[in-house]
Amino acid sequence: MNQTVAIVMSEVFLRRLTPALSAFSGRMQDYRILSIHRPIEEVGELLKEINPIGLISEWLPQKADDLLGLNLKIPHVMVGTHNRFAGVLSVDVDDLAVGREAADALSQVGFKSLTCLGNGTPYSNLRIQGFEDSVRKSELPFFTHTELGFEERRMRYSESFHDPSEEMKSWLMELPKPCGIFAVHDPLGRFLSGACSQLGIRVPDDVAIIGANNDPLVCGLTYPMLSSVSIPWDNFGQFVGSSMQRMIDGGSGWKRTLHLIQPSGVIFRHSANHLAVRDKTLRRSLSFMTERIKEPITVSILCDQLRIARRSLERKFKESFNCTPWEMLCQLRVNEAKRLLMETGHPISRISELCGFNDPERMAVVFKRLTGQPPSRFRK
Which residues pair with 78 in a beta bridge? Predict the structure, then answer.
């Protein structure tokens, strides 16, 4: 008889994990999927009928406590929460790190203010905290706004029909501009972009927006297309699947109660495009850097190719981005290295080539200076 693992979660989270979990279906034989939005009584009856050997569930307010109350006494992995539960392995994105990634990206640009838009959920609060911790040393004004009721008003993750509150409209109009805004997840970023359009606020010229989760169904169908902190969902699903397998096999490696998956950098699209700067010299320089990120270019090569005076270029970068052209180039390369370390299996030597370092040791020095840890530790 086939062994069955039950999955109780929303379609949104299931879509994120399915590509990686499918690799385990041959060994576990079968996954049975139940919507977490069913009444708990129905879920309980169906789980009795399925009689699974393991359970993978999603944390949602109220739903998690109801599910734990069934007391199933089988291996259980719960995704989407930093909370710890006895006998359960919780797996989630490191939300503090998500906020830090957004802050690092927006801090590279010469805004007059930085701000966060939250929705009052636990992950929202953590992401805002990570963002604020990263920009605390900055002299820029920092603001936050929480649009309460956003989660309750939307019927489905991909739907967005309601209007912003009057408080949110006033907040947006009064922000010192140009400003960078981190919306704690992609639907909120799309909602923010729509609000700006209603108010005549230009994106990305007046307001640059970065969301989180890098959901293609949201980011790619938003105008302008939404920049977002990328989550390595394949790594997430791989960890969930392998952990469930170890738990079923009786291994001891699952005994930890919480595991956090690190984000893999920011994917830039039109809503927060660094090239949307007014100065033509800076636009040309940033285009040159991003288009040739894989080449071992230097600031001298950039100045020669574009026929720009180095001293003038450095002054413009300092005034607009508060960094030198070389520091910007290093940051762009490290951002790309972080993405490749998280999302590919390339050796570090190959990644150093793909990011223009061409020397693993050189990449390690720059990577550690900007992130606080060597590439090998970041990948682990």
Answer: 57, 90
Give every CB contact of residue 286 below 8 A, 6+ residues apart in sequence: 274, 275, 277, 328
Phi/psi at 331 (5° precision): -65, -40
Residue in the structure block whose two tokens are 């949110």: 168
Q: Which domain holds residue 362?
A: 280-379
- pTM of the entire predicted model: 0.80
**56 and 12 inside one domain:** yes
CATH code (residue 303): 1.10.10.60
pLDDT digits (tens, 9 = 90+) for 125-149: 999 999 999 988 777 889 999 998 6
Helix 299-306 crosses helix 280-291 at what angle (to 10 degrees)?
120
Task: Find the CATH number of the domain harbouring 80.
Answer: 3.40.50.2300
Answer whether 116's CB lies under 8 Å from 144's CB: yes
Do 202 and 226 fall within a single domain?
yes
Using an 8 Å Cβ cutoff, are 43 and 6 in contact? no
